[in-house]
Amino acid sequence: MDFQTILHSILTVVIVVAQIATVYLAARGNRWTWILGIVTGLILCYNFLSDRLYMSLAFQVYSIAASIGGVFIWKKKEEDNKRTICWGNPLWPLLVVVGLTAAVYYFDAQVLKSNLPVLDCAITSLQAVATFLMVRKDINAWICYLICDAIYIPLGIIGGNYQWLFISGIFLITSTFGFITFIKAYRKIKQEKAQAERTGIS
To answer: Which residues, in sequence order, are CB contacts of 125 under 8 Å at separation 6+?
Structure first.
């Protein structure tokens, strides 16, 4: 193997491990998830630019911008981040995903002429919305990630790509952990508010 092939293989492993770590850190409420996300995004931008995958490049630029926002919005302490977890109305993220999927599919077909499948456009839209929701510490972000993982796994089985199937399985586990962790924190917030209201009344 030549140097470029070896370097590409090493970067692929580093990116996968970093992305898994990013999901885990987000589940913990750790602000380092966004710093790691910026580093990973920069590496992916270089890869996608070299391969002329402009739609994927655009998504990574957006992810880096969102990650920079996350660094400033999230607090330094994990517990402080967990205290501000919210669970918004899932209707508007759903509508945004549908609209964004249509826009991405149209732009890709008409401008870039690369003709991505609708499913790939939908996954990209889900990830974009999930990133925005995660910055806001909205539980709906984990639902978006879980849907993506649930789509990736059967695709890996159908395509016979067992390496990607294994990676998707790990992402599914870490996303499930994040969802459960956020749910527990959200319930704790609700209980504390209810207790405070009862104490105030009495």
So the answer is: 96, 97, 100, 101, 104
